[in-house]
Amino acid sequence: MVGGRLRLSGIGEGISVNISTRVSGADSSEKVRQALQHLFPEAVDEVPMQEPEFGKGTDASWEFHNPPMTTFLGALHDQRILDTALDAMSKNLRDDATTFELSRQAAFAGKVAFPIPGDSPLGGVFRIKLEGDGLAQWIEAATWHPGRTQVPRTINDERTMDDDGEASTWH
Length: 171
Hints:
This protein is α+β, with helices and mostly antiparallel strands. The chain has helices at 29-39, 70-79, 82-90, 104-108, 135-142; strands at residues 16-25, 58-65, 97-103, 125-131. It has one domain: 50s Ribosomal Protein L5, Chain: A (2-Layer Sandwich), CATH 3.30.1440. The chain is built from 5 helices and 4 strands. It is globular, with a radius of gyration of 17 Å. The mean pLDDT is 84.
């Protein structure tokens, strides 16, 4: 526990982390690498570099297995988007696996943004897949903040954001 909260990373916690993205067309491998580095710095050592040239775009699929989530989870806390993260990370939770996406453009700016499901944001996305026993409890712990002592939150509760990304109103 540091600064009043448990610091999770996914490493040694029974959580498998897989990140994938497609770099194609005019996508700059270097800029996508920089975006990845802002949220998952340990993954960038594995990045194949191919820059687009006139008449020849990039075309590569990148996958990263089990990078620590420390920087990503820290960004969620720093940006104070923990309830949004709880909802976005658990939206596709089935058994002990989930998938969600992160905006590469936001990541390039050092921010976390969860695109609305079905949207294709400018700049592309990183697709994250998490698997592990007790994943729902891990997500709740990773996104916990002191405000939950006053307004408790759980996965798929009545305060979960709507499918279009709108906040649920409650009183």
